[in-house]
Structures are given as structure tokens and as C-alpha cells.
Specification:
Elements lengths: L9 E5 L10 H8 L3 E5 L6 H10 L4 E5 L13 H11 L4 E8 L6 H18 L3 E6 L2 H10 L5 E3 L6 H10 L1 E5 L1 H5 L14 E3 L14 H12 L3 H15 L13
Parallel strand pairs: 1-2, 2-3, 3-4, 4-5, 5-6, 6-7, 7-8
Helix pairs in contact: 3-4, 4-5, 5-6, 8-9
Length: about 260
């Protein structure tokens, strides 16, 4: 198998709604080499578009609803109940993207309150959470320790091996993407249990940004971990099916 050209991949985190709509889904997924994905919101204004994508193509798209820490200032009263309503309406939906970011000029206390609300709701409704963390490792760890969801994904993980071990103990999974590969930080995945590793594109996060195909990320990860390409492909795809088992439940014909 040539991982650089393989097309059957699960993308565990992206923002496709920022690059197109339901009618463009096929082309967008093909550009990443993906057959199924989780599309993550960044603010409440995204939720309708993501819901439309998931409804139009349920076998390929699962929705994730949340408020990105960059956009914490956009929240309006009652957003927590509206999040609960979205999750109740779609048993496949997850929570995210949410978390903390110390690199932006957004009130940290506001970020913390919103993140903890996400975690509480996810715990109540038993949903996976996709977590954003930049320069806020201690704060994210504290929040997850206080209210750990059953499963959560540390998206685009670029933290330390020590923090990875603590997140894994709490129920954490970890995704690799092209940005992490370009930064030369895939080595940390050697310290993460291989059954907790998945792939993501983070496609749409930055307008016009280059998005390596998921096969390229898998190939780079296989090199970093010193394992065979077939083993890597089989493992990350099996992991995606476990992590997002409710979200990907409508996909019935998946084969490596």
C-alpha cells in the first residue's frame, strides 16, 4: 500500500464548512483523501451549516458543535442549552472544537468558563470532545481532571510526552496532522499508545492554507514511529472507528 495515494482515510478533525457547503462535500473530501470525517464548529454561527452537511451526507460526515477559544467572545446567552438541543437532535454529534489558547488576546477566564461548560455538557450527554490547546496545558489538564468526558481528542497534539501520558490516563486520544509533521513534532507520538492515535487534516482552519493529504500524514507518522505503512494504516483507521464509533456508525462499507 502506498499511503501517499491511498484514499480511504478517516479525518477526525476539520473545518470543511469554512471552505464549502454540502454540495461541495465530495470534492472537498477527495482533496484530502478522506471517506469520512468529523466537521468541527468554531462558533455558534457555524452550527446550521455543519448540521446541513451532516444531514446531506450522514455516511461520510459527522457534526461537532462547539465554541473555539479564539471565538469565546462571540457567545450569547443560552448557548449551553442550544448546544444540548443540537446534541439531543443528533446522537452522532460530538462536542468541539473547544479548549484554551494562551496565544490569543481573548479573556482567559472567559475561555475557561466556556471550556468547562463544554466538558460538563459532554459528560452529561456522553459525547466525545475535541480539545484545542495552545500554551495552556496546565489549564486544560485541570479542566479535564475536574470533569473528564468518557473520550476526548487532543487535536493536532504538539505537547510533551509527560502531558500525553496524563491525558491518556484521563481518556485522551491524540491526532496528528500535516502542520505537526512540518514542525517536526511527530516524535512525541512515540510515547503515546498506538491505539490512541488518529489522523486529522484540520482542513479549513486557515483560508488558502496547504492541506497535505491524510496519506502523507500517515506515511510521515509511520516513519516517525518506525513501523510499517500497512500497520500504521490499519491501526489509525481502527482507532478512528473506536473513538468515533457512534459518529461513524452509518458507515457500513469501510475497508482499508
Amino acid at each position: 500500500m502506498d499511503l501517499r495515494v491511498a484514499t480511504r482515510w478517516s479525518d477526525c478533525h476539520n473545518h470543511l464548512h469554512l471552505q464549502g457547503d454540502a454540495e461541495m462535500l465530495g470534492g472537498l473530501l477527495e482533496s484530502m483523501g478522506s471517506v469520512r470525517c468529523v466537521v468541527n464548529a468554531t462558533r455558534e454561527d457555524d452550527w446550521d451549516r455543519i448540521a446541513a452537511m451532516a444531514a446531506a451526507c450522514p455516511e461520510r460526515v459527522a457534526a461537532a458543535y462547539g465554541i473555539h477559544p479564539w471565538h469565546a467572545g462571540t457567545v450569547s446567552d443560552g448557548w449551553q442549552e442550544r448546544l444540548r438541543e443540537r446534541l439531543a437532535a443528533d446522537p452522532r454529534a460530538t462536542v468541539g472544537e473547544c479548549g484554551l489558547d494562551g496565544s490569543v488576546k481573548v479573556d482567559r477566564e472567559l475561555q475557561r468558563r466556556i471550556f468547562k461548560d463544554h466538558l460538563r455538557i459532554a459528560r452529561e450527554m456522553d459525547r466525545v470532545v475535541t480539545v484545542h490547546c495552545v500554551r495552556a496545558w496546565g489549564g486544560v489538564m485541570d479542566a479535564l481532571t475536574d470533569s473528564p468526558p468518557r473520550r476526548f481528542l487532543m487535536h493536532g497534539y504538539a505537547g510533551s510526552a509527560e502531558m500525553a501520558a496524563r491525558f491518556a490516563t484521563l481518556g485522551g486520544w491524540f491526532s496528528a496532522n500535516g502542520r505537526i509533521a512540518k514542525m517536526g513534532k511527530l516524535g512525541v507520538f512515540r510515547s503515546i499508545p498506538l491505539d490512541r492515535v488518529v489522523l486529522e487534516s484540520d482542513y479549513g482552519a486557515a483560508a488558502g492554507a496547504d492541506c497535505p493529504r491524510l496519506g502523507d500524514v500517515a506515511a510521515a507518522l509511520a516513519v516517525a514511529l518506525g513501523c510499517g505503512e500497512n500497520e500504521m494504516a490499519e491501526r489509525v483507521e481502527a482507532n478512528a472507528s473506536v473513538l468515533f464509533r457512534e459518529s461513524f456508525a452509518t458507515w457500513t462499507g469501510y475497508e482499508i
